[in-house]
């Protein structure tokens, strides 16, 4: 029972994952871009702070 339940769960997960992959990739790219911007801004602020 447990085995078949797990197998079914894995299959469901794989199907959902494959459907979500494109969405996740887009989201991940957006997050990465946002993080890069955040990091750049923080770095700029830090540099400005060091100059003062």
UniProtKB/TrEMBL annotation:
The name this protein goes by in its record: Pentapeptide repeat-containing protein
Species, as recorded: Salmonella enterica subsp. enterica serovar Inverness str. R8-3668
């Amino acid at each position: 029972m447990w085995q078949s339940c797990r197998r079914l769960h894995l299959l469901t997960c794989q199907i959902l994952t494959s459907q979500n992959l494109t969405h996740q990739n887009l989201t991940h790219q957006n997050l990465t871009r946002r993080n890069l911007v955040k990091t750049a801004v923080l770095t700029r602020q830090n540099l400005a702070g060091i100059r003062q």
